[in-house]
Design brief:
The protein is of the alpha+beta class. It has helices at about 5-25, 30-35, 50-55, 125-135, 155-160, and strands at about 40, 65, 105-110, 110-115, 140-145, 165-170. The chain has 5 helices and 6 strands; from the N terminus they run H-H-E-H-E-E-E-H-E-H-E.
Length: about 180
Amino acid sequence: MNRRSFLRAALAFLAAGVATHIFRRQSALPAEERDGLLWQIDPAKCVQCDRCETECVLSESAVKCVRQYETCGYCDFCSGFYQDERAAFDNAAENRRCPTNAIKRTFIEDPYFHYTIDEDLCTGCGRCVKGCGDFGNGSMFLQVRRGRCLDCNECAIARVCPGRAFVRVPPDRPYIFKAGE
């Protein structure tokens, strides 16, 4: 090894050491200080795989169903509320799509109903979102709730998301709504 090769190797070793030190120091910081970005779900990419419910590091997922009121049709038959293969057209538990009864239905006037999501009951499974998107207008979708998310350096849900729907967003725009609506 000549002197020039030795110096190159030594400089590369020092540069790698400095880069490792900086990376370790940055990854120990909270996400807001590290890169200024927060985790969020892009509704256009979400495939409702139910991994948000099971893969979050929190015992209760930070992902919840939200409803975009401006796009909801307030339908008598809401495909986010009712099962496809329901026994009857009533509010019985076996006819509802949500396994935790997190969607509440309130009569407004014939034929309109108001639907709200009880986030304390919502597990982020996405069944209602899938039904609303398959047969409705897609006014229900999953979002990372800012008050719950830890903004982990490497989000456990993002790592396994088949639709690659988890993206980083700036803190001044922490939610992604349906495009064009």
